[in-house]
Amino acid sequence: MKKQDKTNEDIYYDYWETPVKDSRIYLLTTLQDSRHVRFFFAVRFMKEGSEDKIEKYELTIPTGDSYKITEENQGWKTNEHFFEGKGPERVEHQKCRTYKVWNTPYAKDTYCSGLALAEHEVSPDHIFEYVIIGQDEWIEFFTRSDPKWTHLEKGTKIADLIAGYLKEWGPDEE
Questions:
Q1: 110: helix, coil or strand?
Q2: Which residues contact residue 1 at a Cβ distance below 8 angstroms, ignoring those fewer than 6 apart?
Q3: Residue 49 and residue 8: Cα distance in Å, rounded?
Q4: Helix H segments across the chain?
Q5: Residue 120: phi, psi to the nearest 5?
Q6: Which end of the chain has less Cβ packing within 10 Å, N or C?
């Protein structure tokens, strides 16, 4: 259910249901080619009374959709509606790390600067960004299609995945 931001009545947020929403998220690397932007994460799931479980995930969005990665301290400053009672309460924030946020300056600027189709009026419900609050950075993106989360099998090496994706483009020229 959308909740109104306490500092800006035009901004609303809601939890984004993802396989990593209740965990500590570490961005490992990104890869962008002509078709996709891929974000690779190490995710620590913490459960009381048992050992933490670490898994790897890949998040894929189309190339051409807007995204930004902000260092953690700057992320807190530029997204003030996420902490200290100005949005999700501190306890709620610690439970969820993935959000949808409507009508932020970033979402509006992104939508109005090229992703919008001029032929029709769009509902404000469609002007939102996705936000992932990582341990060391904030990842924000605006995409026209559903982001795709992929759980990576245990033992998967990110370097091997990247090499495989790069190989799709053919052998390097000498």
A1: helix
A2: 14
A3: 40
A4: 72-78, 90-95, 105-110, 158-167
A5: -140, 155
A6: C
Domain boundaries, the chain: 3-167
Mean pLDDT to the nearest integer, 96-119: 73
Q: By the 8 A CB rule, do 7 and 81 touch?
A: yes
Across 34-38, 74-78, 121-125, which has the greatest mean pLDDT?
A: 34-38
| Residue found by looking up tokens 């924000």 in the block | 140
- Round to whole Å and give the CA distance between 101 and 15: 9
**Residue 94 backbone phi and psi in degrees, to 5:** -70, -20
Indicate the burial class of 65 (C-beta count within 10 angstroms; 0-12, 13-18, 19 or more). Answer: middle
* H or E element at residue 44: strand 36-45
Give residues with Cβ within 8 angstroms of 166, minimum separation 6. 31, 33
Provide mean pLDDT across the span 49-58: 89
